[in-house]
Amino acid sequence: MIFDKSGAVVAISQKEHRQFTPQSGWVEHDADEIWQNAQAVIREAISKAGIRADEIKALGITNQRETTVAWDAQTGKALHPAIVWQDTRTADFLNGLSQVQKDLLVSRTGLAIAPYFSASKIHWLINYTAPVKQALAAGNLRIGTIDSWLTWNLSGGLHITDVTNASRTMLMNLETLAWDLELLEIFDIPLAVLPEIKSSSEVYGETSADGPFGARIPIAGILGDQHAAMVGQACFEKGSSKTTYGTGNFALLNTGTEIVRSKHGLLTTVCFKFGDQPAQYALEGSVAVTGSAIQWLRDQLEIISSASEIEGLALQVKDAGGIYFVPAFSGLFAPYWRSDARGVIVGLTRATTKAHLARAALDAICYQTMEIMDAMVADSGIAMTEMKVDGGITANQLCMQLQADVMGIDIVKPLISETTALGAAYAAGLAIGFWQSTDEVKAQWRQDRRWHPESDEKTRTIGAARWKQAVERTFNWVD
User: Fold this and answer.
1) What CATH number is attached to the domain comprising 68?
2) What does residue 159 show for φ and ψ, rounded to 5 degrees?
3) Helices (H) and strands (E) in the chain, counts
4) Tens digit of pLDDT for each residue in 300-351?
5) Does residue 338 fall inside a structural domain?
6) Which structural domain range is residue 35 located in?
7) In a domain, 101, yes or no
């Protein structure tokens, strides 16, 4: 996406890449395909904008955070498919850690013990893939999240990440913002293979002249996707929050420069760090499967042919007909953190139709979001009167109305729903002075739509209770 000084979209190009599930619990991407697609959309966006590449002032990068790729520094080629954040293959390894190790990991990183995060994925790559072992022995191994992979390729060899992505690896100390040697030792990961940790907004280097831009553009912003959405939603103050709807759902609450430890199943993470300014932190609630449940209805069950059809199908019925769909395909994230959970559909009757299942899938998005926001209120003590939302599913009017009904508060969508990309642009622009301050950025935020709750409290209470019953049915499915 290309943005102008007012934060408006100049041009957009997007391309879906393939998802690979070679066995149960495994989710992979082709890192080389991601790089090829990235080049393609860069070129197309520039072409659509009708500008020269050298007119672009700076480049910001945002990415799915925990997805991990290993590559060879000499050949520049990925050594194994990228292991995606949803992948659960490392659950047994994590279960085998001692309680002392688990306690150390949680206290140093603010994260939960879950295969979601990068460290156990890196451990798996180093220990179970021959090409990775060979590259390590030769001193050529590089490992990082997708921001590192893209930066490496765009710059011609710069191996860096930012604090937000590093905070999701389970290897960075939240207080020092540096790789923690004791944590590296737990996972048997050599420091030399990891990228250098930088702030989220500074000039790191330039794109290669022979790359997709065909020009040297400052690479000046890197933010994990959820942190980028916080910046795009102008959530710069303590107490501000947003929820992003993507393949999963992610809610963040800015806690300022204070590291707040959750007592209700949330994660503590770096929110962002701009240059030399102190890092700001956040509480985060993560839902593994929301938009990807709709992809599942499309690709596996084939009850819709495109994701956009889900709303029309769900509108054919007045409610889900008493069925609840808990898409715990790879376990449950916040507030449960149950990697033993698997998906269920309960309440089926002979009268159930695909329209009811479509409606239940939208309900599932809303109920899962409700649970993490309830935990956020409990941890922070801050009552929620409205919720800022962004991401693809916010185009679904029914889903957003259901979200307002389930939570009993207003749901507010900004004019630019792709706030993740906008946040990456803001981080890059702030680094070079394209925007002078976060106040200037905040002044650009505009409301597009607001949904008010239409349900009564009794309906909300009954629905939430039945949802929790359905969630309990997912537990203890995997030994």
Assistant:
1) 3.30.420.40
2) -110, 90
3) 16, 20
4) 999 999 999 999 999 999 999 999 999 999 899 889 989 899 999 999 999 9
5) no
6) 2-232+419-435
7) yes
